[in-house]
Amino acid sequence: MTAQRILFLWLFACLAAGVSFAEDRVPWTSSRVVGTPDPPKDYRVERVYPKLEFFHAVEIAPLGNTGRMAVLDVTGRLFTFKDSQECDKADLALELKPRTENFRSSFTFALHPDFDENHQVFIVYASNPVAKPDGSRLSRFTMTMSDPPVIDPESEEVLLTWASGGHNGCAIRFDQEGLLYFSAGDGARPYPPDEYDVGQDLSDLRATICRIDVDHPEGDLPYSIPEDNPFLDTPGARPEIWAFGFRNPWRYCFVPGTNRILCGDVGWELWEMVFDVRRGGNYGWSVYEGPQPIRSDIERGPAEISKPLVSYPHTVGQSITGGVVYEGNELPELNGFYLYGDYVTGLLWGLKVDDPTASWNPVLAETGMPIITFGNDRQGEPLVVSYEGGLYKLVRNELAGQPNSSFPRRLSETGLFESITHLTPAPGVYD
Prior knowledge:
By secondary structure, this protein is mostly beta strands. Strands 6, 7, 8, 9 and 10 form a 5-stranded antiparallel β-sheet that branches. Strand 2 and strand 3 form a beta hairpin. The mean pLDDT is 91.
């Protein structure tokens, strides 16, 4: 049990007992309850690019073969920097806010698979008001290969729009064939659940993962629909849709060598989910939130509902961040494991990809930071991005398996009592 969880339970017990938290209360300063009695996890995170700090970064990726990395922040700024641990300066490549009326936030970016030849960068961002019908944009930009590289803002080509909202998803990923996938949340506020009734509605791009071909425009569209998209011939359905029934699919990745998707879907009241996403799948929202039934008043979509591969309750974490499948060399014991985390608790899990029952899904690290996204460096090692601004990598924990000797094992060691003999509470401790 984490210290955060212990504190929460203590506060809950105090409130239930009617304890006052008035300003004149004597503070308890003698506590020696720090950390947890459990041994440290097998892994920890370690800062990389330590001289760089980003304001609310949301996505990171290598910039092709330029020897640089690229980072997008929530304010619409795309930076690039030299891939060196000594680098102390990130160069601004694009700023979306000045050129976008009522700009609200940016969410994700991806490079075209042939970026080194065509220099194409794809970005999803949103504007206000929240429920604007075309407030979410998927746009293509062209980067100039100057030193440092920059994006010509006039090169923007808006490929697709959909309604902006409280849940925008989102991720952009390319598959093995070079087809672009993007995700969109249900656009709703936290309550009521699925207020726009789009979770099971194939006529709307919200609450979906979509798949398009950005290299072959067709008709009036700057893209085309792949012939094997699952709902191409479904009456009333948007043909871009690949899978549906998501609340807020915040990051997903392809299992290497396949078009199988592992997606972290942010839950509502009780559950956070990892879905094993396949062609034409229905992942339940808002009929279900993970294993929990939610609504029976909406018509279900045309596919049977698939259950989560993993679901964890809000007593463990409260906002899932989908991750990456490990393919690096530094931690070979993790090869083939899906790494994902939680924004609120900072826990980081490892899920064995080829285990259909998800029976091996331990917490690998307790990062203590808001995990907003995962990426890979130029060597294929996973990067963990903190919304507070730092970039990290996963490393083995040299303290793994060792008990926390500083955690009190006896009541007399906690600092709760001024006198154990007379059981006199310490100042600030109330019975």
